Amino acid sequence: MEVACHAAGPHQVAAARTSTCSLQKKPHGKPDRQCIAHCSNGFRCPRAVQTSFSTRHKACPVPYCERHLKFGDDALKVYQHPKGFGKILVARFNLPKGYRMVYHGLRQTTGTDPHLDPDEDRTLWFYPAPGFEVNGYLDPSPCPGSVLQFAANGGPQEVANIRQNDRSFGHRNGSYGGMEYEASMSIPAGTQLVHNYGSEWWKDRPELKRSNVGTDS
Ligand SMILES: [Zn+2]
Fold it and tell me: How far is the CA of 203 from the centre of ligand 1 (A)?
């Protein structure tokens, strides 16, 4: 479903032609109020973040509007990997260095989530602010709009182009949370998003062999 976020004026058409997303600046010391995703026309989504927390939580909600939470940032596109590595995530527009994306999902604690398949594990540890102590993990698998779950883990010869930063969304013991990632370099449209799950992830999965996921094209 393609939904134009707002009517394009002449200046917007010119900007859309360059297909480079704008860098979403976070308001200093405050939660994002505007959705950080981009729309299919290449412009920053003008909608408000879907939820807000009371100041009691000292935490920020996942900074997407309802639509982008559900369907994912239109600046990113999920594809089937041509060599059978499952789904991959590709930049649909040019992403500037520092482009913000959120890996979000349902918060679970060890033992409460019986459906996890170890081979399909896309969970991520949740380190909510303030304090940033681990508070269960996030399971994005029931959330197709959480498209970062499809970003590949780079093989030994591949360079990661996205990395987790120190921002978290959702509050301690909440039901939903997210961890922020950013583009660690500028990413041209059509490029696959690759991150490094880290040595811990691999240590827990000795049965999986690392291989290069890059495509030849
Ligand atoms: Zn939005």
Answer: 36
Cα–Cα distance between 89 and 189 in angstroms, integer?
11
* Distance between Cα 132 and ligand 1 center (Å): 26
In the predicted structure, residue 39 carries a pLDDT above the cut 50 = yes
Residue spans of the domains in the chain: they are: 19-203
Residue appearing with tokens 């729309």: 39
Task: Determine the Cα–Cα distance for residues 194 and 131; give it in Å rounded to an integer.
Answer: 28
CA 102 – ligand 1 centroid, Å: 12
Q: Is 143 in contact with 175 (CB distance < 8 Å)? A: no
155 alpha carbon to ligand 1 midpoint, in Å? 32
Compute, in angstroms, the gap from residue 35 CA to the centroid of ligand 1: 5
Q: Which secondary structure element, helix H or strand E, spans residue 104, and what is its range?
A: strand 100-108
Q: How close is the Cα of 27 to the center of ligand 1, in Å? A: 17
8 CA from centroid of ligand 1 (Å): 16
What pLDDT, on the 0 to 100 scale, is given for residue 163? Answer: 94
Task: Name the β-bridge partners of 163.
Answer: 182
**Amino acid (one-letter) located at 71:** F
Nearest in space to 205 (alpha carbons), one of 81, 88, 117, 146: 117
Q: Among residues 185, 190, 169, which one has the least CA distance to residue 64?
A: 169
Q: How far is the CA of 26 from the centre of ligand 1 (A)?
A: 15
Q: What residue has token string 């498209």?
A: 147
The CATH H-level (homologous superfamily) assignment of domain 19-203 is: SET domain (2.170.270.10)
**Mean pLDDT (the chain, rounded):** 82
